[in-house]
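Section: Multi-chain targets

For targets with more than one molecule, the full set of components is provided together so that the structure can be written out for the assembly as a whole rather than chain by chain. Components appear in the order listed by the source. The example entry contains two components.
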Amino acid sequence: DGGITQSPKYLFRKEGQNVTLSCEQNLNHDAMYWYRQDPGQGLRLIYYSQIVNDFQKGDIAEGYSVSREKKESFPLTVTSAQKNPTAFYLCASSVLAGAVGYEQFFGPGTRLTVL
Amino acid sequence: QQQVKQSPQSLIVQKGGISIINCAYENTAFDYFPWYQQFPGKGPALLIAIRPDVSEKKEGRFTISFNKSAKQFSLHIMDSQPGDSATYFCAASRTGNNRKLIWGLGTSLAVNP
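Its structure, encoded as tokens over all components, is:
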């Protein structure tokens, strides 16, 4: 099956700890994205990557970090500098952003709760 | 700065009725307007999309109407069903290198049986 997997589905973190969310895709997509979703605030872009070993900040990158060492993988680290990390995190992938009529495919999400 | 404004925030419709969600955009360079559907606890999925060279696109019970002069586009769900209960997001982007999707804030639709 082609698609995007995210793990874990639920994650609990103590304040002051860094945590890493996993995102893997087997769609052979060049672009990958991380979004944060909070009630009533839609989808806010954290980071995105168009090519291996390159990524750009989105609208709310502070307190987050990413890497793109492989085309298939785009892990997100929520650092202790993120002041309010409790949220639903979504990973997506697509053909190159800005291609004609491109579609973003989303994973099932990870719900992070800070205790 | 919200470049894509979506309304209403929430919507309740009776089974068999028509659900209408509206979006307005500011950037006249946008040339791609998708709608995504998200069920609780799941990731969004593309529902239907339109480009500005047509004023309407229909796929089954779902129709996008596009008004270029007013810079507005809307999603119509005909014969709404309880299974349509979900959050709907409109978005916009422009073709070109490294162009991101700009998202509306979403509309929570509940279809009562």
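Chain A is about 0% helix and 50% strand.
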